[in-house]
Each structure stands twice: as C-alpha cells, then as structure tokens.
Design goal:
- With about 190 residues, the protein is of the alpha+beta class.
- Helix content is about 30%, strand content about 15%.
- Strands 2-3-1-5-4 form a five-stranded antiparallel beta sheet.
- α1 packs across α4.
Length: about 190
C-alpha cells in the first residue's frame, strides 16, 4: 500500500472553514451551516481582439494566463463574422481559464493579498458590479499586477476580466461573503 499523500490545504480555505463560515451564518441569519455561501469557481477571461491580425499576441496571452493561474487556458473563438472588425467566424480572439478547488482558493488568496494592492491609483472596486445572483465581475487593465509576470518579458500589456462565482442567492449575500474575506470594495462617498 502507498502512504496517503499529505497536501496542505489553502490558507484561505482553512480560514473560511474555521472562522468565516460560522460568522457568515450569524450575519446572514441562515438556519443551516450548509446554506452559507461559498466560492464555487473563478473565471479569468482575456480578450485579444488584435489576434486576428497578429497571432503572436494570442500566444503571449495564453502564456501569461498560464503563468498567472497555473493552468492551461482554453482558446476562445469568434461565434460569428463581423466585417467591421475584420473578424471571421472561428477566429481565435481570446482565452479563458476556469479555476475550481484548491487552485481557485490559492488564486483568490494571491488576488486579494498581492495583486489588487499593486493596482495603480487604486481606490477600491465597484460594489455595484454584482450580477443579481451573488456573482462578482471586475476588470483589470494590465497583467503586470500579478507578481509571477516578469516585466521584461511582456510583449504587450493586456487586461482581463475576473468573475468570482459564488453559491450566494442574492447580491447582499455575495457581498457579505467577499467582505468577510477582506475584499477591497470602494467605500460610499468616494
């Protein structure tokens, strides 16, 4: 028999299980601990519109997203042709990654503690960017906020959209979950 592998659990997941979950149960007033919202997945999308003319830009985006997430991204293709953008159906125009499990918790930890504080002129994230079902989406203008990206090897500055999908049923529950993790929302009046 082989010994069981001992992998260390992500620190943010341990903190959620030990502290935040019970605190949210009281805050939200849910009767059962299993009804407390949690993170379901994180989707990172990087659109590269100029990839139709220059394929190397898409390859750079795939490489950067692989370094940031530790997972190979899926190349997204155009669903229909648009003549004004010189776009044909089936052209590669971006890439995306869906993170779940431990990899999601590690990325979320790095996002909150390392990447978001490195955003230039940061005044907080918009608290109105919830979708009505407790999921939060925000955009980042450059991939250089992640410490894994080597500044000298960047061929082009690219932005990305990050969607945090939760099991919350409402925006208020989703906001309470992200607030419990210390998510930097913009304060009212700023």
């Amino acid at each position: 028999m082989t010994p069981a592998s001992t992998t260390e659990r992500p620190r943010l997941k341990v903190r959620y299980d030990n502290e935040i979950r019970a605190q949210l149960k009281d805050t939200l007033g849910v009767p059962n601990i299993m009804m407390v919202p949690t993170l379901e997945k994180i989707v990172i999308n990087m659109g590269v519109g100029r990839a139709t003319q220059q394929q190397s830009l898409l390859e750079g985006a795939v490489k950067d997203l692989t370094i940031i997430t530790g997972q190979k991204p899926l190349v997204t293709r155009a669903k229909k042709s648009i003549a004004g953008f010189k776009l044909r159906e089936g052209n590669a125009i971006g890439c995306k990654v869906t993170l779940r499990g431990d990899r999601m918790w590690e990325f979320f930890d790095r996002l909150i503690s390392l990447a978001i504080p490195r955003i230039r002129d940061f005044r907080g994230l918009n608290p109105a960017s919830f979708d009505g079902r407790g999921d939060y989406t925000f955009g980042v203008t450059e991939q250089l906020i992640f410490p894994e990206i080597d500044y000298d090897r960047v061929d082009s500055v690219r932005g990305m959209d990050i969607t945090i999908v939760t099991t919350a049923q409402s925006n208020a529950a989703g906001r309470a979950l992200l607030d419990a993790f210390g998510f930097p929302f913009r304060r009212e009046g700023q």
